[in-house]
Design goal:
241 residues; mainly alpha
Amino acid sequence: MLQISLFDQLEVMMSMIVSSPLNLLILLFISAIIALLIIDYKKKQKIIERIILISLFILGLIIFLVFHTVILGLLDSFMNNLIRTIYFPNYVVYILILITSNLVLIYSILNNEMGYSYKISNYTLGISLDFIAILLFNVIIKNNINLTEEITINSNKDLLILLQLTTEIFTLWFIVICIIYAIKKLIMIKDKEYRKQQLAGIRNIKFIKPKVYSIDKKNKLIRKEVIDFDDEIVYIDEKKE
């Protein structure tokens, strides 16, 4: 790969920006959004946040309309590479997945505050992939497979199935974790809204101070404690003295 200094990289980038009016326009647009973000950080006004969101939407729309061919080509290439990684994985991807799953498993065991659903998902991932790893190591030793040669890996059916299964389980685990996270967030938002409604209802309740009356009945002093709500007696406690 050609090595270029940082100064030369910046010089080339600046020449690209200056040479195209569209690049200059996009740069000015991005600068305006950054300035709005700084103002919003200090002012915290909703109108500024809405302007930022609208500006980001407009910028994204402009970029997509101008460069849609390149963007769609990159997405297509990404999906092809993703599918190829899932169904024809290499040992580098496998090692990264195995390390990640075991780190997640250890973290789940040590973290006592983690939710039950997260723990079950992480335990299932770690234990399943560790068991598959044992099967995979047996296949490698039994068939004397050279891991440095990708052709050898893809030519062994048992090894390829185990690698594919590992990638599929890891992908499924990631999707499940995202779904659990989204559900918990929605529940938290709903619970927060319900609590706000409850607090608003409590604030609207009017508390009336009880009134105490002394009444002389048949030459005997009787103390009556009366709670008066809009001149309507709802509770009377009589005590003779």
